[in-house]
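Hi support team,

I've been running sequence recovery on a batch of backbones for a student project. Most finish fine, but this one hangs at about 90% for roughly twenty minutes before it completes. I'm not sure whether the input is malformed or the queue is just slow. I've pasted the structure tokens below so you can try to reproduce it. Let me know if you need the job ID as well.

Thanks,
M.K.
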């Protein structure tokens, strides 16, 4: 499944990328361009804008997201599309939406703090923006947020490394 989120859903798009979902997001995009891009790329439109869903080209290819809290929005999407929030966790760049690639530890020695290099074994990088990723304390926060979603009657395996 591929999605495109309107400009009102930046935090939702980020969290969906954290879960490994393919979500395009542009901070500034006209409604018509958003709908056309969704059609061209086979993406489901995620929007809070009722004017977007009234467009003829958007018919049957949208999900109207309710509320302003990203956790509530995330619950809606996870439930509607039966997404396991843990299955592809941390496999996409949260900035570029590109799948991450593993990178040899020796290649990043000068790009991370010494402590990180000494305490982490596994690193990933975005082939588009070159951003580096590794398991750090932020993963605990991510897992706490996802556990709240899972505790709302949506249960998934938590097979994490």
């Amino acid at each position: 499944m591929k999605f495109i989120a309107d400009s009102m859903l930046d935090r939702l798009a980020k969290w969906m990328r954290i879960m490994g979902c393919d979500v395009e997001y542009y901070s500034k995009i006209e409604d018509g361009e958003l709908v056309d891009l969704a059609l061209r790329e086979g993406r489901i439109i995620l929007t809070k804008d009722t004017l977007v869903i009234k467009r003829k080209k958007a018919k049957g290819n949208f999900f109207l997201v309710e509320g302003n809290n990203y956790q509530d929005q995330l619950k809606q999407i996870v439930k509607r599309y039966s997404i396991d929030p843990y299955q592809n966790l941390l496999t996409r760049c949260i900035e570029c939406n590109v799948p991450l690639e593993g990178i040899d530890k020796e290649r990043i020695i000068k790009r991370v703090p010494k402590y990180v290099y000494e305490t982490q074994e596994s690193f990933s990088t975005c082939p588009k923006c070159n951003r580096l990723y590794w398991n750090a304390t932020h993963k605990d926060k991510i897992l706490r947020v996802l556990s709240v979603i899972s505790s709302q009657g949506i249960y998934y395996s938590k097979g994490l490394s």
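--
Follow-up from support: It reproduced on our side and the slowdown came from queue contention, not your input. Residues 100 and 127 are 7 Å apart (CA to CA). No action needed from you.
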